[in-house]
Amino acid sequence: MDASDSRIAFDQDGVCDHCRRFTSEVRPHWTPGGYGLEELAKAAGRIRSHGMGNDFDCLVGLSGGLDSSYMLDVMVRQYRLRPLVFHVDGGWNSDLATHNVRVLVEKLGVDLYTEVINWPEMRRFQLAFFRAGVPHLDVPQDHAFVATLYRFAEKHRIGHILNGGNLSTEGVRNPLEFFYYGTDMWQINDIRSRFGAEDMPTYPFSSTLRHKVYLRYLRNVRVVKPLDYLPFRKTEAIAHLESEYGWRPYPQKHFESRFTRFLEGYWLPSRFGFDPRRVQYSSLILTDQMSRNEALGLLSEPALTADEVKTESAFVARRLGIDEEQLEQFRTMPKKFYWDYRNQKVFLDKGAKAMRLLGLERSIKR
């Protein structure tokens, strides 16, 4: 991490706040293997018991990326869960993601449900974020993934959702200025109303209050992150999935989506001067999966080549129904951030702090 994160803070020894937070707040409470495996076995037992007599024990969100793919393999093969695999098609699936979802589902013999988001609505929503000038252009896609998953769980009375999020490869937080909260409905509605995305009758909106409090504590929809309990290591997980399923790895984390590939591989570095690989590699360094010198070497080259940038830009413009000149105008327009629009950040931060103090929001034990 460097000063491209404008809020980074270094101490007198040159150690940044990201590393200090990981050392003081994450590592002491993170116990993959050993005790963690015992806790995961108990959690799996509760999930099986809760799902007894139902068609499925739980819901597993599967993007085709490494984390969710490895989680599905482990929870089906080692912990004997009977999940319904839930995939959300937001209109940007790569061919590689489609392949990876298919080979896992077929070999594991699990059922797959795919929710397809209304493309005209998604297109209007994403163009509104482009016009707003903000960096967090993935909000329309990410919000749909979360909201649709929770809605399905509530409707079909599925009590547990398995999530591939993990500390092993995601222990360093993304800077909020580039990756703002995806469920801030004040901000979402402000941008929609200003930039032409008000008519979205079928898009699945969901507020933080709804899925963090109402669904969790009143409807008993629980989220479990199995990879936090496991000795999960990126290279070993990739090798296992390749060998067992013919699963194929991506050039970079999150590249299962063509839009996210464009956003993180080109748009954020070129428009905002921030390379998301800094966060990803920092997590791997802190969990002893990559050396700092190796990370710096990779960062010395852009994530996408010039030819790849041309290909991805042309694809995104065509998919959004605009020309490449308009896309370039979006890239060079004045920069805006979450604070330039109505937002709930103060309330969201205070709510998260209150839940942690009350023991309702914890990093590992859930």
End-to-end Cα distance = 30 Å
Basic shape: globular
Helix fraction?
40-55%
Low-pLDDT residue intervals, each spanning 5 or more residues: none
Radius of gyration: 20 Å
Please write the string of helix (H) and strand (E) elements. Answer: HHEHEHEHHEHHHEHHHHHHH
Structural class: alpha/beta
What is the multimeric organization of the chains shown?
Answer: single chain
Largest sheet: 5 strands, parallel
CATH superfamily of the domain at 31-251 and 336-357: HUPs
**From the 3D coordinates, which CATH architecture of the domain at 31-251 and 336-357 would you assign?**
3-Layer(aba) Sandwich
Q: Quick one: how many beta strands?
A: 5
Strand order in space, largest sheet:
3-2-1-4-5
CATH fold category name of the domain at 31-251 and 336-357 = Rossmann fold
Describe it:
With 366 residues, the protein is of the alpha/beta class. It has a domain at 31-251 and 336-357: HUPs (Rossmann fold, 3-Layer(aba) Sandwich), CATH 3.40.50. The chain is 52% helix and 6% strand. The protein contains 16 helices and five strands. It has helices spanning 17-26, 35-50, 66-77, 95-108, 119-132, 139-155, 167-170, 185-194, 208-218, 234-245, 258-272, 277-286, 292-299, 306-320, 324-332, 345-357; strands at residues 58-61, 83-89, 111-116, 160-162, 222-224. A five-stranded parallel beta sheet has the order 3-2-1-4-5, sandwiched between helices. Strand 2, helix 4 (95-108) and strand 3 form a beta-alpha-beta unit. Helix 3 packs across helix 10 (234-245) and helix 11 crosses helix 14 (306-320). The protein is globular, with a radius of gyration of 20 Å. The model has no long low-confidence stretch (mean pLDDT 93).
